[in-house]
Amino acid sequence: MSKDRKFGLGRGLGALLSDTPEVNRERGQTNTNSNSSVTDNPSAALGAISHVKVSQVEVNPFQPRFEFDEDALKELSESIKLQGLIQPITVRQLGQNSYQLISGERRLRASKLAGILEIPAYIRTADDQQMLEMALIENIQRENLNAIEVALSFQRMIEECSINQEELGDRVSKNRSTVTNYLRLLKLPPTIQAAIRDNRISMGHARALISVADATTQLYIFQEILDKDLSVRKVEELVRQLKNDATKPASKDKKPEAFSFQYQKIQDDLSSKFATKIKMKVQDGGKGSIEIPFLSDDDLSRILELLDW
Hints:
Conserved hypothetical protein from pyrococcus furiosus pfu- 392566-001, ParB domain, disordered N terminus, ParB/Sulfiredoxin_sf, HTH_ParB/Spo0J, DNA-binding
């Protein structure tokens, strides 16, 4: 059995799966039912490899991965048709003939695609917090979640498991600053988050962007990354330059009166479209002006292109 188990899950998941056959052997316990059918004796199957019906396994509600590569699933499905499922999934038992997936959703999906009716599974006992932790750790260490999926999983773990960032770092074997950087990604504008999720920009680019406090400047730099295919080092240099340029004292002009909801929405939509902070001035009677600031000659050219100038 050991040659089929290629988990590489690290201490975090290994500690949670404390009823694995390996742990039992370390305690001097031997499980003689290591390849049983769960329908024979459900309680005896706990901690052993059993075969469960695919139709009886429901997906993990704590799964942090949102998207699965269809081509990769088809390749795995073809392999399962030829070789069978070598690496068992892990489930928890909900009832006599009902199970909930802990880890291995990709293998489960590929097995369904291959038309397999029964697959090998490790059956564990786990509460909801352990389910979330297991799913998170298993996916991070085995499936390389994109940075936004990791960040969302970290946030969910903190909120639903009532742990702090330091405790979370201990569970996933990452230092606190790494956890913090992932969580800060979720404060970036949605457009940038989507680009990170879709691998249009790297985590290195994202780290440079989260060091910028202003969302408008973040959007400007993001557009520069796309337009000029900037490296991470170039982005870091651009960030430093913009921070150095931002040395002018704050304006002491009288604060304008608050916009109506309609005007505020127009200003926000224009700022998003042009990736710069649009300033609108509205006078009584509907008169006013729109100011479009730019940060460089290249930025001006970009804005003129958007205006079809």
